[in-house]
Specification:
By secondary structure, the chain is mainly α. It has helices at about 5-15, 15-25, 35-45, 45-80, 85-120, 120-140, 150-155, 190-215. Helix 1 packs across helix 6 (about 120-140), helix 2 packs across helix 5 (about 85-120) and helix 5 (about 85-120) packs parallel to helix 8 (about 190-215). The longest helix has about 35 residues, at about 45-80. The chain is globular, with a radius of gyration of 20 Å. About 25% of the residues are buried.
Length: about 230
């Protein structure tokens, strides 16, 4: 995939199921802090336990989505082409699933946290705009040589670039020759996976701090009323 506007739009469409999941998952924690929070937190005094239970609920929904998407893709591929099943291919599929799952869970949790401040609609718009801005920023690399230090900085600083497997070298996964590795001198699958997991952990910890301090919403963040 090249760094130009049309390719970024195509990539955005490929991410559409994950954007929809962010919209769905973006209210799963937030809704508990609306009028039902008195009932919820009077029965669940341990908010840490409640928080991780809700996170597991988000994970289960994401697992269902991934099984559907990857299962459908594999089925269509098997029906249309002569697919050769290899260990390296399954490893790539696993890395792909982990990268997109970590990213999507981070964004969905981010929507929930922002929703506590601005409401669910604004929270989703902010997170969606952030991702759209990251995709648009990659277009700045169009025309730059792969060896250009400016392009290297752009790819390193824009985390959404870590979702494109074809840009990366295999790193510790030892899959040389399996990927185009267009920008493999800058990005590696192992480094990308580590980065996205660390970002997810940071957002989970931030959420843990927020839910400990947040009580029932005293105003209607959706309409502005009390």
């Amino acid at each position: 995939m090249e760094l130009y506007y049309g390719a970024m739009v195509d990539f955005g469409f490929l991410m559409l199921p994950f954007f929809l999941y962010q919209f769905y998952g973006g209210i799963q924690l937030y809704r508990q802090f609306c009028v039902a929070s008195v009932y919820v937190f009077s029965r669940t005094t341990n908010r840490v336990k409640w928080y991780f239970k809700e996170l597991w609920g988000l994970c289960k929904g994401l697992i269902v989505l991934q099984v559907f998407l990857q299962g459908t893709t594999l089925l269509v591929a098997a029906l249309r082409w002569n697919v050769v099943w290899t260990t390296e291919g399954w490893i790539l599929l696993g890395v792909h699933v982990l990268l997109f799952s970590s990213w999507t869970l981070t964004m969905a949790l981010g929507v929930n946290l922002l929703a506590l401040i601005w409401g669910s609609s604004m929270g989703f718009l902010v997170v969606f705009a952030l991702q759209a801005g990251m995709l648009a920023a990659l277009c700045a690399g169009n025309g730059l040589e792969p060896s250009d230090p400016t392009l290297a900085r752009l790819l390193l600083l824009d985390p959404i670039s870590r979702l494109v497997l074809g840009w990366q070298s295999s790193g510790i996964f030892e899959l040389e020759g399996m990927l185009p590795a267009q920008y493999g001198h800058v990005l590696t699958l192992s480094g990308s996976l580590l980065l996205l997991v660390l970002i997810l952990v940071a957002v989970v910890v931030l959420g843990l701090i927020v839910i400990q301090k947040k009580d029932i919403l005293v105003s209607n963040l959706e309409t502005g009323g009390v």
